[in-house]
Design a protein that fits this description.
CATH architecture: 2-Layer Sandwich
Strand order of the largest sheet: 1-2-5
Order of helices and strands: EEHEEHE
Largest sheet: 3 strands, antiparallel
Number of strands: 5
Radius of gyration: 12 Å
Structural class: mainly beta
Number of domains: 1
Helix content: 10-25%
Distance between the termini: 37 Å
CATH class: Alpha Beta
């Protein structure tokens, strides 16, 4: 299986949520710890072990970055737009 390290971005005018499919193993820790529940499993994208990756509703995201810090594989990156 070929790993896809290209970023999968979701963004709005304030933030960009990036999930690296080749790093995400679909453990769901980011979903569990998100205080506003804006992260969910993606319906189509799969990660490194064939598990569903995650998707973010960036309009609900508060940019707390808990998902980025809790991810054991560094598969999530949040950036604030200037």
């Amino acid at each position: 299986m070929e790993k896809n390290f290209k970023p999968n971005n979701q963004k709005n005018d304030k933030i960009t949520f990036t999930n690296y499919l080749g790093l995400c193993k679909g453990c769901g820790l980011c979903i569990e710890y998100c205080p506003v529940k804006c992260i969910s499993f993606h319906k189509k994208n799969t990660g490194v072990y064939g598990q569903p990756t995650v998707s973010c509703d960036v309009d609900k995201c508060t940019y707390c970055k808990i998902c980025e810090r809790i991810c054991p594989d560094g598969a999530i990156l949040l950036k604030k737009k200037k």
